[in-house]
Amino acid sequence: MQAFPIKPQHFTHSGLGWQQFKALQRAFEDSPGVRVNYFDGDVEILTVSPQHGIIAGNLGFLLELWMLEQGIAFVATGDMTVERDQVASAQGDKSYCFSDRKTIPDLSIEVVIAGEGSTKLARYAALGVSEVWFWQNSEIAIYQLEGTRYAKVEVSQYAPGLNLSNLAACVVIESRAAALAKFKAG
């Protein structure tokens, strides 16, 4: 029997209040692989596919290894939910604080298999996350917060010198050992 990839499901509903969002969030809290996000009355519900998990896991592993080798002090906060009451709620795939742990991470990383990045950027801007990365279609795009909006940049303020093209290519390799070997060779 051949296994078929599970496609992620993505649903957005507009016009919901914060309390309705919180009720939906509670309803899905015991559902692994389901994310519920909120911004400006829009609730996004999405499922995480095995492909998504492999990419996010490899991305975090390789990035953390690289930062350790560079002597960069960081706190890995995983896929923590970040909220600003009545305004926004987001759960990135990986998030990091630099120097000390904070309530809002310095860096959030999103693996985008289905869905849009632009609406996610508005959510992160409302939360005040200073840098956001999107892995999408085997590329990593970096956005830095300037005032209340993000500007796309070529170099991360938190990982200067990181070869993003190599990282983006390696994270799709299913075997973590093979991903690491290619990353180190790259």
Short description:
The protein is α+β, with helices and mostly antiparallel strands and 186 residues long. The chain has helices spanning 18-27, 50-70, 117-127, 164-170, 176-185; strands at 10-13, 34-39, 42-47, 74-76, 81-84, 88-91, 94-98, 107-111, 131-136, 139-146, 149-153. It has five helices and eleven strands, in the order E-H-E-E-H-E-E-E-E-E-H-E-E-E-H-H.
Give the biggest beta sheet: 6 strands, mixed
SSE order, one letter for each helix or strand: EHEEHEEEEEHEEEHH
Alpha-carbon distance between the termini?
36 Å
Total number of strands = 11
Our count of helices gives 5
Principal-axes geometry comes out as globular
Q: Strand sequence of the main sheet, in spatial order?
A: 4-7-8-9-10-11
Structural class from helices and strands?
Answer: alpha+beta
**Rg result:** 16 Å
How much of the sequence lies in strands comes to 25-35%
On the 0-100 scale, what is the average pLDDT? Answer: 89
Low-confidence stretches: 1-6
Helix content: 25-40%
